[in-house]
Structures are given as structure tokens and as C-alpha cells.
Amino acid sequence: MMAVALGAAAGARGGEEGFDRIAEALTVGSDDGRMRARLSGTLDLEGYAFSHPAPALLDATGETLFNPRWSLFLDAQAGRSVYAFAQMRVDRGFDPGPRPLRGRLDEYALRVTPWEDGRLSVQAGKFGTIVGNWVPRHGSWENPFVTAPLAYEQLTGIWDNGAPDSLSELLDWAHVSPRSPHGGRVFDKPLRLPLLWGPSYTTGLAVSGQWGRFTYAAELKDASLSSRPRAWDRGEFEFRHPTASVRLGYRPNAMWNLGVSASGGSYMRTDIPVSLAPGKGRSDHRQYVVAQDVSFAWHHVQVWAEVFAGRFELPGIGDAELVSYYVEAKYKFTPRFFAAVRWNEQIYGKIADGAGTRVRWGANTRRLDVGPGFRFTPHVQLKIQYSLQHDEVAERAWTQWVAGQLVVRF
Predict the structure, then answer these.
(1) What is the mean pLDDT of the chain?
(2) Residue 132 in 3-state DSSP?
């Protein structure tokens, strides 16, 4: 992969005029400038090498994985008030795996802003969540890493097709019980949920706006923050158990940006029969998330951090609570060369076992991500990431992996 990446980068250095011509050809507009539409995109070539089992949301039975991805973005403006956008991808699945290449529509939305001062915008469609500060910069060009922070991809012992019958069964699902079968991380991976599933491109409605140094946003989505990608499409849940989220932001100056968020909704699937606690419905199995985020930028330094406090309600057992956070920093040594470091941690709460003691319901996890990046041109970027993860009370306490990503944008 490295040879392909370097070869593509070397070829791109001499092709800047070609990229400019492509951008011009993919932009159309009316003579008066009121109507405008532009197509753009990225080509990502990703490679992973890891110790088995595959980490996070990666789906692979071996110890390496190659994942090409082509993303196409449409941005359209009609006057000053109406804006539409869409994102299409062709890859091996939203979460990489050894599958055939297929296309899908990840985002599509229409936004109306009645007033020029931006006090109110109304948006409908399928789009990323408003919670936190990672989603606005999660794209392969903006993200200094190849993967997402731990909170967005670390699988827990919560399933969305059924509730555990007892605390001991929950501990089995979370792989912290001595009875957990070896290799269970692999066969039950399609059943488990993270605290947040990536950018959560879920169908819904949103309002947002700005007043002075304050920003606000609220959304009503068809599925929870932890819902899997197949639940994001319109009509999957038909708003029978919607999730509501809000965020309030404050920007005291050009360097700092602060925010608080909250979200609540059912995490159980509605497209298939699921097993629930006796006498309870899907609305009794809810997920709640409260979050704080901060970002800082000064000269060559950028810092981001998010803290999530989450709760999954398990009637008859208790509330499964956890805290997940990360601190991420990026430093630009030159206009082209940068490096980033990210510390992640996920800490699980305790649930009473009925015998007078409290038991931790998940394996506390710590992860260090580090890596350099180099922008060969304004259109070509190469990133390398090394990750070292430690899981307490897990089958393999230490895991590590290396990832590389070449991004070409047009």
C-alpha cells in the first residue's frame, strides 16, 4: 500500500492544474449567481494491520484489511436561504470488512435559513448528529487520524436485538465474565453497540442557529446515537421511538469553542422481533448521553476534547452506565507536515448483583493513538496511525494495530 500511496502522491504533485480543471467542470451556476451546485469528492485508500481479533468496528477474520473508498459530495445553493447537500460512498461497508464494493447514500438533506443573520435554520433529511465536536471534522481529509475516537467505535456489552435476562448474562455479553467463551468477541460482534456509532447519519429533523457568541442545535432522529448503520435510513423505524438531542455552544473568542450536549431515545431495534424484559416495551430500554466538548486553536496547535456520560436502561437489572472521553492534539511542523496524538479512555460503572456487592459491567479500556501526516499538495494527503489499547479483564489485555490512509480530494 505504501508504494501505491507514494506513487499516487508523486503523480499528483504535477497535476494541480488537472485538479483545478476538474473542480471547474464539476461546478455549475446561473448567470446571476443565485443558483449554484458543485460536485466534489475524495478517494481513500486505507490499510490496516492488527493483532487478531480485529479492533473496534473493523470486520475481518485475518490480521490485515485493505479498504478503498470513493466519496462523492453534492452541495447546492438556491438564493441565500435554501441549501441542499448529499454524500454518496462506494466502499466495502460503512465499517470496513472483506466485502464486495457497493454504493450507498450516506447523507441527503435540505436546509432552509429564513434570515441572513443565521438565527434559525431548519433541516430535514439524513445527516450526522449535532452532538459533540468530532462529527463536523470526521471526514478523511479533516480527521488527522484514520479511525474515530474510542467512544465512537468501542463495542460494549449492550445488544440492540434483546435485553439480558440477568447481570451474569450481561457480563457474558461484555466479555468480563469468566464464563465468556474464548473468541466471543468475533461471533457476537454484529450484535453489540458502541456508545455512539460513528457520525450517526440518521434520518430526522433539526433546527440550529446563532446569537452572538452562542450557538444552538436540536434534532429529532429516527434512531439512537448507538444505532447501527442499517437503522439510519428513512422508514427503518418510522419514528415509532424517536431520539431527541440538543447542543448549546459558546465561542468566547477565535481560539476557544465550548459545547454541552444531551440525547435520549430507545436503543432497541424495531425492524425485527427483539427479546425485552418481562412486561416492558422498547421505550423502557432507553439510552441517555450527556456530553461536554471543547476545542482550541492557536498558531500551529489544535486541541479537541470530548467527555460522554452514557446510560443504557436495563429493566430488572439496573442502569448500565459508562464514561468515555478523549483528548486529541495536532501540531503543524510545516504547512505540509503534521503529527497528532490522542488519548482515549472508557470507564464502566457498577451494577448491584443482588448479593450486596456491585460489579463492573464492562472492561475499562484505554487507548493511545499517534501518527504523522503529510500533505503532498492541496489535494493529496497521507496519514499513518499506530494504536495501542489496553482492556481490563479481557481475553487479550493488550492489542495494537497500524493503519495508513492516502486521501486524494477533488
Answers:
(1) 90
(2) coil
Instruction: Give the chain's end-to-end CA distance (angstroms, integer).
Output: 21
User: Helix, strand, or coil here: 233?
Assistant: coil
Structure confidence by residue, pLDDT tens digits, 245-297: 999 999 999 999 999 999 999 999 887 778 888 888 888 999 999 999 999 99
Determine the 3-state secondary structure of 40 from DSSP.
Answer: strand
Cell numbers found for residue 385: 496511525
Which CATH number does the domain housing residue 167 bear?
2.40.160.10
What is the extent of the structural domain holding 13? 2-409
Residue linked to cell 476545542: 295
Residue 183 is which amino acid? G
Give Cα 85 to chain centroid, integer Å.
Answer: 19
State how many domains the chain has: 1
Cβ neighbours for 99, distance < 8 A, ≥ 6 positions apart: 59, 92, 93
pTM of this structure? 0.90
- DSSP class of residue 231 equals G
What is the DSSP annotation of 283-340? GGSEEEEEEEEEEEEETTEEEEEEEEEEEEEETTTEEEEEEEEEEEEEEESSSSEEEE
